[in-house]
Amino acid sequence: MLTERLRDESGGSPECERLLTTDDLDALAGVLAEPGRPLWAREAAAFRLGAAGDRRAFEALVLLLNHRDPQRCASAAHALARLGDPRTARAAAALATNELRVAYALHPVRLLVELRAPEAVPALITTLQRRLRPHDPYRRVALACVEGLGALGDKRAGPVLNEALAHPALAEAAVHALARLPGPR
């Protein structure tokens, strides 16, 4: 759970409790602008602002969405999904398709599916096509793309999902995803 993790990271700091409980959005935004703040404080402030729909959290949340720590990525994706910022889908698509950061693409892929934005299907198709190479180590990302394309139900995903059938780790999910697409596949 986010609050417990941040409390642990802060060493039980009273500042952490204040950030987790305050209703002062300006104070939370101030944490994002102040230099020298620890990562746990920035994450707490960004998450709280994002969940409240305050767009001042956008940049910080996108940075956290691309963090090496999966827990930070998950909390950022959760807050970004609630933020309502029109830039979110474009940012998530850019992160999901960035081959230099593919190890951290799982949460951007899942966020794209949740947002159901126009950028989602093209980004997931691109990401999945790249994961279909032999010996690709990012099967969790590929599986999230397959499942996401099925959930989105866009017929443009048919060709890449058919390609995924040839990959044992993805075949079952690809069958289910293809079944969710409209029309002939």
From TrEMBL:
<dbReference type="InterPro" id="IPR016024">
    <property type="entry name" value="ARM-type_fold"/>
</dbReference>
<dbReference type="InterPro" id="IPR004155">
    <property type="entry name" value="PBS_lyase_HEAT"/>
</dbReference>
<protein>
    <submittedName>
        <fullName>Adenylosuccinate lyase</fullName>
    </submittedName>
</protein>
<dbReference type="Pfam" id="PF03130">
    <property type="entry name" value="HEAT_PBS"/>
</dbReference>
<keyword id="KW-0456">Lyase</keyword>
<dbReference type="GO" id="GO:0016829">
    <property type="term" value="F:lyase activity"/>
</dbReference>
<dbReference type="InterPro" id="IPR011989">
    <property type="entry name" value="ARM-like"/>
</dbReference>
